[in-house]
Amino acid sequence: MSSGHEYPHESTGVETRKLGMWVFLSTEVLFFGTLITTFLLFKGRNFPGIKLTDVYDIPFTSISSFILLMSSLTMVLAHNALENEDQEKTRVWLLATAMLGAIFLAGQIYEFTEFYHKGFELSTNIFSSTFYVLTGFHGLHVFIGVVFLIALWAIGQRQQGLSLDRGIILNS
Amino acid sequence: MSTDHKEHPTPKKYVQIAIVLGVLTALEVTLYYLEDLVGVFTDSLLIFLAVGKYVIVVGWFMHLRFENKMVNRFFAGGMILALILFAIVMLERGMANFFYS
Questions:
Q1: What average pLDDT is seen over chain A?
Q2: Coil, strand, or helix at residue B15?
Q3: Do B70 and A36 touch (CB under 8 A)?
Q4: In chain A, whose CA is at the least distance from the CA of B23?
Q5: DSSP assignment letter at A124
Q6: So what's the architecture of A16-156 in CATH?
Q7: Is the per-residue pLDDT at A29 higher than 70?
Q8: A40 closest CB neighbour out of B7, B43, B70
Q9: Reduced to 3 states, what is the DSSP secondary structure of residue A169?
């Protein structure tokens, strides 16, 4: 959908900032792929100390994951609103996305605290280390995302609102 | 600038996609409770469902399927490498269980 904003011609056929973001995201896939495989390598093996299965609260984690999943819906609705140049809806969906991300983070902090109190700590064994590194890095990514979303929402509060130059890059 | 642009889905379509993602998440949770029944296939099935959710989120919500082919190839490359990594780990785990159990 054309936004009316023209970028300089790129020899790759893709706007450089957008290409840069996709390349970054591609490296993120490998980054988390490595963390997940390390986690899987040690999953189900016997290590000293309390097991993750003894401290897990699957219904809580499932709801938490679902909330984060729904934040992807609110994010794409924000994008859709911006494409339609609806500044108010864009701000509402951006804020909703940030809130859902913040709820997920609060849940993760609660879970980590519970695990620690029950004795499943970062240094309990090598499996617990892989678990905290994987989920901790994911939480860090969500946190950075929430900060960016709040920044976008704040920029959107200005009179000129969000646009290609001050906000989300639209496909064009 | 991309020249092969397709129209993005409507909000209604996005909600439908979110429902599919919710169902896949429910399946993942169900698999956890059925681990004794599913056995060694649990991790593989969980990875399969996770990849399915990932493709849906990246393809539709992040609009990758509406992007230039080059961007798609770039991103598919990262995903294929990650899947190869998963396959190697699954193989290693399977062999370890076979030889040491």
A1: 86
A2: helix
A3: no
A4: A66
A5: S
A6: Up-down Bundle (1.20)
A7: yes
A8: B43
A9: coil
A72–B18 C-beta distance less than 8 A:
yes
Confidence band, pLDDT 50/70/90 cuts, at residue A170: very low
- Enumerate chain A positions whose Cβ falls within 8 A of a Cβ in B: 1, 6-7, 9-10, 12-15, 18-19, 22-23, 25-27, 29-30, 32-34, 36-37, 40-41, 43, 58, 62, 65-66, 69-70, 72-73, 75-77, 79-80, 83, 171-172
pLDDT score at A168: 52
Q: Report yes or no: A75 and A148 within 8 Å, Cβ to Cβ.
A: no
CA gap B74, B68 in Å, rounded: 10
* pLDDT tens-digit readout, A114-145: 999 999 999 999 999 999 999 999 999 999 99
Q: How many angstroms separate the CA atoms of A106 and A108, rounded? A: 5
Determine the Cα angle at A149 with ends A146 and A154, to 5°.
125
Distance from the A156 Cα atom to the nearest Cα atom in chain B, whole angstroms? 21
Give pTM, 2 decimals: 0.84
Q: What pLDDT digit, counting tens, does each position of B27-51 carry?
A: 999 998 888 888 778 888 888 898 8
Higher-confidence residue of B59 and A162: namely B59
Which residues in chain B are closer than 8 Å to A46, comparing Cβ atoms?
none
Q: Is A75 exposed, middle or buried (0-12, 13-18, 19+ CB in 10 A)?
A: buried
